[in-house]
């Protein structure tokens, strides 16, 4: 069985949670609770490029804003 997260020919979406963390997610799988689509469906490369352009600080939002 092929892992759907590692298939380059699969269409993906980018999901974001309330902490503004991003996740690459196969289009055909339902988004888990607490995650919302913000980009796609598109190619894996396009989704990775979106994440690279929009998620510069990998710390959760609650940590970035504390202090």
TrEMBL record:
Protein name in the entry: MbtH family protein
Q: Which domain of life is it from?
A: Bacteria
Where do the MbtH-like domain residues begin and end?
3-53
What organism does this protein naturally occur in?
A: Streptomyces rectiviolaceus
Cited Pfam families:
MbtH (PF03621)
Q: Which InterPro entries match?
A: MbtH-like_dom, MbtH-like_sf, MLP_fam
């Amino acid at each position: 069985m092929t892992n759907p997260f590692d298939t380059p020919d699969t269409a993906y979406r980018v999901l974001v949670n309330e902490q503004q963390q991003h996740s690459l997610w196969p289009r055909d799988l339902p988004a888990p609770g607490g995650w919302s689509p913000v980009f796609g469906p598109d190619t894996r490369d396009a989704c990775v490029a979106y994440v690279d352009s929009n998620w510069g600080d990998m710390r959760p939002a609650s940590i970035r804003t504390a202090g």
